[in-house]
Amino acid sequence: MSEQARILQAIAENLGLSVGDIDRHALLQEDLNLGPVEFSDLLGYLSAEFQVHFTPEDVSNLETVDDLVILVEDNLI
Q1: How far apart are the first and last CA of the chain?
Q2: Taking burial as the number of CB atoms within 10 A of a residue's CB, which of 9, 33, 42, 56 is the most buried?
């Protein structure tokens, strides 16, 4: 399984969705209805799952699922 697939699987798992239900171009707030608490929980989950750390600057411009996948991937390197 590719890194992107693992990240998408983790996002889906945290949100209680199947991977097939997640559009990489979906907006985190508008399409997935992530409020500040849910978004923070998702970031914490991904941080623990992939052993990565996000700075406030990293997450301030996240808009889509794809942005989040790329952020996690970049932090894995």
Answers
A1: 17
A2: 42
